[in-house]
Amino acid sequence: MAKRFTKQERERIQAILNLLDEHYTTEYKCYLDHENAEQLLVATMLSAQCTDARVNIVTRDLFQKYKSMEDFANADLKELEQDIHSLGFYHSKAKNLISCAKDIVVKFGGKVPRELEELTSLAGVGRKTANVIRGNIFHEPSIVVDTHVKRISNKLGFTKEDDPEKIEYDLMDVLPKDHWILYNIQIITHGRGICTARNPKCEECFLREHCKDYQKKLKQKQRKEQAE
DSSP state, 87? Predict the structure, then answer.
């Protein structure tokens, strides 16, 4: 059941979205370099526990060597491991890539499927990866919960959950559909530049007035100062 919000809560949510639109692009932008659905699927699978910049360096050569799902399906495991060695977790990533590619070739004619259930049936493909494909390739309204979205959505009070799937459903209630993919793009930019995990620049943040985490810490600081 969809959560009901008060008028004040809705106004606060809209104010946050307006500020994100104002400060960041409202254009759909994917940080992983790709030319088609197959390449984006591979790049997204490789991006687990790794930066997009590093993935883009590796896939520049990888996509020259493996030009189709058939190429990945027929790849030698040890050789593929060496090709993606610098990305970390290369044993499991290479194994999943080959298994995923084989299923795509056999079950889906070599083309990345569109439906969530079909995507998540593939080896190494969870809801996050599936929603990246659905949003960026098929333009299906989809919410991608990565580390930035998880951390900042909690700070903003959009969710209290820790599980990515539960966060996804919370954000479906909070965000209008036209911001589902856009929110992820904007929050990644915000999380990398201002609301970083280790040292958030709260005083520079244009969302601090609406950030429940910041407001909570501000009140705690004020109470402490009054008590001294």
Answer: G
